[in-house]
Amino acid sequence: MDIVFDLLLTLHLLALLSAGAAVVGVPVLMGRMATVGPELRPTFGSVAQNLGRVAQIAFATLLVTGVLMVWVRFGGIDGLSIWFWVKMGLIVVMAVAMAIGGRVRGNPQAANIVAWVSRLALAGVVLSAVIAFN
Predict the structure, then answer these.
(1) Alpha-carbon torsion 23, 26, 30, 31, what sign?
(2) pLDDT, tens digit (0-9, with 9 covering 90-100), for 56-97
(3) pLDDT at residue 102 tops 80
(4) Are the C-beta atoms of residues 132 and 81 closer than 8 Å to each other?
(5) What would the 3-class secondary structure string for the chain be?
């Protein structure tokens, strides 16, 4: 089962990389849209939408591979530390931020707040995962 876990971990880390790139990249692109000419705004918007879709797919991949890794390695959630549950709570925060982020695109101040919540939650997920599984 070690090879199965290693493959799941590889997919999990690749999805984390993709989600992180989108969480950081989309707000940067949206901030730049205000400074570019009107002819470039549709292109920037399209790139931001594509990165947002990548983030959604990566998030789903993280959920699936995460559940499978816990099942393969531990046989379930029994005995997992409080840090595992902190990580799960922060994942919920990220999911809510993603949902809100899609609705506040027209409000730069709100979008900026949501972006920072997403970034901090992502950093917290990584930190709590390291503590929970190390």
Answers:
(1) positive
(2) 899 999 999 999 999 999 999 988 999 999 999 999 998 898
(3) no
(4) yes
(5) CHHHHHHHHHHHHHHHHHHHHHHHHHHHHHHHHCCCCCCCHHHHHHHHHHHHHHHHHHHHHHHHHHHHHHHHHHCCCCCCCHHHHHHHHHHHHHHHHHHHHCCCCCCHHHHHHHHHHHHHHHHHHHHHHHHHHC
The yes-or-no verdict on residue 15 having pLDDT over 90 is yes
Q: Report residue 25 as tokens.
A: 């990249």
* Interior angle at CA 63, CA 127 and CA 48, nearest 5: 85
Contact 114/97 with Cβ under 8 angstroms? yes
Read off the pTM: 0.81
